[in-house]
């Protein structure tokens, strides 16, 4: 802490952060006999951005690999468990907010797990880059002092020794394109999670999920009965804040006038904000998932009240056997009308279909008409790929 304060005191005079660090290091090393002989090789042929771009790259790499990815992975695994545990739990789908062909709760969770896993993989493929090529990216100063040295090779070896990917084509700055790719990829991950948060919020509202309560917790200052889905709301709010920050970073950072302007400098100081709000969101979602309890009774009630969803398989089987106007006949039976188990049964029995086809339709219920949903839930592992860390070389 004392060293950091000393650097800040030097910076008050220099009004230049990197130069302040240089002066601090020189002062520190004056008493070291070997280093004292080469003090002027501190910051030799460098521009400040040679230092800063590598520091930012290393911070991003450590933040992603050490902090962000582990929580992303924990979140994906938690959603995978929801999918696996509820692979066979039938649920009424809703398109446009209206009853649609049944699915299983597990399959709908599997969709989110697969989407998040795929996007997490995309994030991991972004190469974290660095440069060390001087004031305008040409090694001008380097060659003026040592013209016979292969400076591009030395720079490449040095940058790669830090575990970063070397970028040979730069100006005064590393162009930040990789940062834009990284932040936009995180935005997509976050947007998928917003979709998840909102869907879970909706399922809680429909009472498809109950939420475990904690002794002493209060849901409303005036309504004692309230158990609100606050974790998913907090997650959604933080994701929106994160995406706003990351979006500006992704749009701003690749743009710098000519060989460099300073507009990126102040913006780069805010990388932590977008990642921080993302992290808060992931942890809030995890906290919410841990409180969820499936309400199978409520799920079953909705299915029992939605026999009209069997209009789809009936008209499809009718098409198979060339029954004329199948869609129109089912539309007349079901649209805007109360449809019951008995009315569906009566309609099927009146169809001119082979016995096996008719028997199949008569055995169908909203609980069993789930297509491949169960199998999709149970084979989710095939779609999940949690690779380690971001690409460096």
TrEMBL record:
<dbReference type="InterPro" id="IPR024083">
    <property type="entry name" value="Fumarase/histidase_N"/>
</dbReference>
<dbReference type="InterPro" id="IPR022761">
    <property type="entry name" value="Fumarate_lyase_N"/>
</dbReference>
<dbReference type="Pfam" id="PF00206">
    <property type="entry name" value="Lyase_1"/>
</dbReference>
<dbReference type="InterPro" id="IPR008948">
    <property type="entry name" value="L-Aspartase-like"/>
</dbReference>
<keyword id="KW-0456">Lyase</keyword>
<dbReference type="InterPro" id="IPR047136">
    <property type="entry name" value="PurB_bact"/>
</dbReference>
<dbReference type="GO" id="GO:0070626">
    <property type="term" value="F:(S)-2-(5-amino-1-(5-phospho-D-ribosyl)imidazole-4-carboxamido) succinate lyase (fumarate-forming) activity"/>
</dbReference>
<dbReference type="InterPro" id="IPR000362">
    <property type="entry name" value="Fumarate_lyase_fam"/>
</dbReference>
<dbReference type="GO" id="GO:0044208">
    <property type="term" value="P:'de novo' AMP biosynthetic process"/>
</dbReference>
<keyword id="KW-0658">Purine biosynthesis</keyword>
<comment type="pathway">
    <text>Purine metabolism; IMP biosynthesis via de novo pathway; 5-amino-1-(5-phospho-D-ribosyl)imidazole-4-carboxamide from 5-amino-1-(5-phospho-D-ribosyl)imidazole-4-carboxylate: step 2/2.</text>
</comment>
<comment type="pathway">
    <text>Purine metabolism; AMP biosynthesis via de novo pathway; AMP from IMP: step 2/2.</text>
</comment>
<dbReference type="InterPro" id="IPR013539">
    <property type="entry name" value="PurB_C"/>
</dbReference>
<dbReference type="InterPro" id="IPR004769">
    <property type="entry name" value="Pur_lyase"/>
</dbReference>
<feature type="domain" description="Adenylosuccinate lyase PurB C-terminal">
    <location>
        <begin position="256"/>
        <end position="370"/>
    </location>
</feature>
<dbReference type="GO" id="GO:0004018">
    <property type="term" value="F:N6-(1,2-dicarboxyethyl)AMP AMP-lyase (fumarate-forming) activity"/>
</dbReference>
<dbReference type="InterPro" id="IPR020557">
    <property type="entry name" value="Fumarate_lyase_CS"/>
</dbReference>
<dbReference type="GO" id="GO:0006189">
    <property type="term" value="P:'de novo' IMP biosynthetic process"/>
</dbReference>
<dbReference type="Pfam" id="PF08328">
    <property type="entry name" value="ASL_C"/>
</dbReference>
<protein>
    <recommendedName>
        <fullName>Adenylosuccinate lyase</fullName>
        <ecNumber>4.3.2.2</ecNumber>
    </recommendedName>
</protein>
<feature type="domain" description="Fumarate lyase N-terminal">
    <location>
        <begin position="2"/>
        <end position="242"/>
    </location>
</feature>
<comment type="similarity">
    <text>Belongs to the lyase 1 family. Adenylosuccinate lyase subfamily.</text>
</comment>
């Amino acid at each position: 802490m004392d060293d950091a304060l000393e650097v800040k005191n030097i910076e008050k005079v220099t009004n230049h952060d990197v130069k302040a660090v240089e002066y601090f290091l020189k002062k520190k090393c004056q008493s070291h006999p070997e280093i004292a002989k080469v003090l002027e090789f501190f910051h030799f042929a460098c521009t400040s951005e040679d230092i800063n771009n590598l520091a930012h790259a290393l911070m991003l790499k450590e933040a992603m690999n050490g902090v962000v990815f582990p929580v992303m992975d924990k979140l994906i695994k938690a959603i995978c468990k929801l999918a696996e545990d509820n692979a066979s739990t039938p649920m009424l789908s809703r398109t446009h907010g209206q009853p649609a062909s049944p699915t299983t709760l597990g399959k709908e969770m599997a969709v989110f797990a697969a989407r998040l896993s795929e996007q997490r993989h995309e994030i991991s493929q972004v190469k974290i880059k660095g440069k060390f090529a001087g004031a305008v990216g040409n090694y001008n100063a380097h060659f003026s002092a040592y013209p016979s040295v292969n400076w591009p090779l030395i720079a490449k070896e040095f940058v790669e020794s830090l575990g970063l990917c070397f970028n040979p084509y730069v100006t005064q700055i590393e162009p930040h394109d990789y940062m834009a790719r990284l932040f936009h990829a995180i935005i997509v991950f976050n947007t998928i999670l917003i979709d998840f948060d909102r869907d879970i919020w909706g399922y809680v509202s429909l009472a498809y999920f109950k939420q475990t309560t904690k002794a002493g917790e209060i849901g409303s200052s005036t309504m004692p009965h309230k158990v609100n889905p606050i974790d998913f709301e907090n997650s959604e709010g933080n994701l929106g804040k994160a995406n706003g920050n990351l979006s500006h970073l992704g749009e701003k950072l690749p743009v710098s006038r000519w060989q460099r302007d300073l507009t990126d400098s102040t913006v780069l100081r805010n990388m932590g904000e977008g990642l921080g709000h993302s992290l808060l969101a992931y942890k809030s979602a995890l906290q919410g998932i841990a409180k969820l309890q499936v309400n199978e009774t409520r799920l079953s009630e909705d299915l029992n009240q939605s026999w009209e969803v069997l209009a789809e398989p009936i008209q499809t089987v009718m098409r198979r056997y060339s029954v004329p106007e199948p869609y129109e006949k089912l539309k007349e039976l079901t649209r805007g009308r109360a449809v019951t188990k008995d009315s569906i049964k009566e309609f099927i029995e009146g169809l001119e279909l082979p016995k096996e086809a008719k028997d199949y339709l008569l055995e169908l219920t909203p609980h069993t008409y789930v297509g491949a949903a169960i199998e999709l839930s149970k084979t989710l592992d095939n779609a999940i790929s949690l690779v380690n860390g971001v690409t460096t070389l």
